[in-house]
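Protocol step 6 of 9: fold each sequence in the batch and record its structure tokens directly after the sequence line. For illustration, a two-sequence batch is reproduced in full.

Sequence one:
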Amino acid sequence: MKKIIFFDTETTGNTEKDVLCQIAYKTSDETFSALYNPGIKIPPEASAVHHITNKMVADKKTFSLSGDKEKIKELFENENSVAVAHNAPFDIMMFKKEDITPSNFICTLRVARYLDKEEKIERYNLQYLRYLLEIEIEAQAHDALGDVLVLEQLFTRLQKKIMDTDGVDEDEAIEKMIEISSHPSLLHTFKFGKHNGKRIEEVIKTDRGYLEWLLAQKLNGEGIDEDWIYTLKHYLEK
């Protein structure tokens, strides 16, 4: 049986250059949360999201020196473990920078997109889904442990939908979620910018230059956006 690990990281920002300053996870028998000194200043725009300040981590050790790394590495790299996160590729990238590579993972963002066949959901961020699905839970938004508690409830909803839709049991649903998470999502509709609300397959016919420009922005930017890069390359046949 797979061991499910719901986890989240808080970081100094959302680019490849950034560093983690909090890890939280929850399993069937353990709840863990800890702050770490990232070794660089936490910018105010990051603190405005997760409310972790430089003063809060001033006397903390870095993750690699904290004594937690060995335990977390063993847990996440166990072949029977499944790490679950929302927008998992980002959190996994943060872990890989610390020499931790989860054996299996589920991205609830990708699974939510996959299940929204008719694209009725306006946004897919964790807190939006929390209130859209009326997940009743006491949890502070953007705190790593608070997000983990919401994540656990979201995972349960998504797993049940796959079980009901595909007629499979819990274990088979988990395998399906792992498979969905293993590759970027193919997006179909713009939900931002000058083509907001339009199908990408229509925009490629009338404004190919915009897609070319957007792809260049995504490739050259500091953010991590595998799904959009994959989608744009698909429609541009690159």
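Sequence two, same batch, same settings:
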Amino acid sequence: MLEMNSPEITRLAKALLAVQNERAPASKDATNPFTRSRYATLNSVMEACREVLLRHEIWLTQLPVPAPPELGPGHIGLLTKLTHAESGQWQGSLTVVPLPRADPQGMGSAITYARRYALTAMLGMITEDDDGESAKAGTQAPTRHEQHPRPETEPRSGQRGRTRTSRSQTEENSGLPEASDPLPQLEGIVYQQVTAQDGRPCIVATGDTQLRRNILSRAGFRWNAQRKLWWKYTDAA
């Protein structure tokens, strides 16, 4: 059985009490596109606790480790450990999360997510974000596609007379930056840039997406059935 603390933790516990009494709250500095709620990123959590941990001589380490083999492939473990520098007393926690995809970006997203939640749990930090339920969807990055979407030049039957939303108008309204690969220019579709729970910028497509799902999919967008929206990471554009 994996040991989660040293035989004695009295001095560590005393130091952690001081940390909990003095640490600043983590500010909610990003927006989850799936729940449209604010949450504290890993940077915010670290800023709230780093200095007070050092002041009380507590060494924080968060190390990627293999996941338990019984879980099968597609998982990664994170060992978070708080060590009292003077006494050597320590306490640890193992967090296991699924990999959204088997590449460095997928691993990085999973580790960032695990680090944030493990650290807030061990230090008793409450950030009041509600993105736990959507973590699976939020960390699943869409597969990169070659993007040659063909803009619709003529409205479909029954749609004549509707005002077409151009890409320039969409970006002007949503603050979406210019991209080297243009987004599909589709009637009734609005793009917005938001921040995902892992801190990476996302593009969300809203509006009349039902009839445009094939084009959005070819452009790299992924459907989130729970939140009823199409999305993709900005760096996957």
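Proceed to step 7 once all outputs are recorded. Observation for sequence two: Residues 64 and 78 are 5 Å apart (CA to CA).
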